[in-house]
Specification:
The complex is a heterodimer.
Chain A (H helix, E strand, L loop, with lengths): L3 E4 L2 E4 L5 E7 L4 E9 L5 E8 L5 E2 L8 E7 L2 E6 L8 E9 L9 E3 L3 E5 L1
Parallel strand pairs in A: 2-11
Antiparallel strand pairs in A: 1-3, 3-8, 4-5, 4-9, 5-6, 7-8, 9-10, 9-11
Chain B lengths: L4 E3 L2 E5 L4 E6 L7 E7 L6 E6 L5 E4 L2 E6 L4 E6 L8 E9 L2 E4 L3 E6 L1
Parallel strand pairs in B: 2-11
Antiparallel strand pairs in B: 1-3, 3-8, 4-5, 4-9, 6-7, 7-8, 9-10, 9-11
Classes of the chains: A mainly beta, B mainly beta.
Chain lengths: 119, 110
């Protein structure tokens, strides 16, 4: 149980295009999904917290117009990197929190990540 | 942003050796501390969720302790095996936000 998928796993795009990444909880419902970005040799940096049915909460320094997050249902959140540039190239990973386990202090289940390369 | 720090950044040990790493974090407004294991090309997998000062948790050869008053947690691996090779992340949560340390990359040499 508690499987999270991400699609695509790898994407290469041209500068100026937009890329959408999907994060799905396959066998549980998630009120909250988190989006992280990993820089080379760095840890996972929290970009935003996505709550079903409401606007995402972005971390300081993350441009909300650049990284559009939509959490339309209890099993799907999407991250759209708009007008991508080479500096947006990174590893993006999502995680989801099981609605049932809200009392378990934020235990998260991670997707496998998406490697974005912007040429 | 909560400053979560981990040390060492990387570690190489021989098979059979025991090892431990440290996670340090601000002790104020503590909510929960998580340890995750992240193998290459896989998703991070939760090892422990710790909430109480003095907590000790164990899963097989891996165990963790928590000191919320001084703001640190230790992860121990007894008798390391090659399959323990991974990056070990600790993260600190406050309500609906969550911040990770830089991770400790463990390589167990057969």
């Amino acid at each position: 149980g508690a499987v999270v998928s991400q699609h695509p796993s790898r994407v290469i795009c041209k500068s100026g295009t937009s890329v959408k990444i999907e994060c799905r909880s396959l066998d549980f419902q998630a009120t909250t999904m988190f989006w992280y970005r990993q820089f080379p040799k760095k840890s996972l940096m929290l970009m935003a917290t996505s709550n079903e049915g409401s606007k995402a909460t972005y971390e300081q320094g993350v441009e909300k117009d650049k990284f559009l997050i939509n959490h339309a249902s209890l099993t799907l959140s999407t991250l759209t990197v708009t007008s991508a540039h080479p500096e947006d190239s990174s590893f993006y990973i999502c995680s989801a929190r099981d609605l049932k386990w809200n009392t378990r202090f934020n235990e998260q289940f991670f997707g496998p990540g998406t490697r974005l390369t912007v040429l | 942003i909560l400053n979560v720090e981990q040390s060492p950044q990387s570690l190489h040990v021989q098979e059979g050796d025991s090892t431990n790493f440290t996670c340090s974090f601000p002790s104020s407004n503590f909510y929960a501390l998580h340890w995750y294991r992240w193998e290459t090309a896989k998703s991070p997998e939760a090892l422990f969720v710790m909430t109480l000062n003095g907590d000790e948790k164990k899963k097989g050869r891996i165990s963790a302790t928590l000191n919320t008053k001084e703001g640190y947690s230790y992860l121990y691996i007894k008798g390391s095996q090659p399959e323990d090779s991974a990056t070990y992340l600790c993260g600190r949560g406050t309500g609906n936000q969550f911040y990770f340390g830089t991770g400790t990359s463990l390589t167990v040499i057969p």
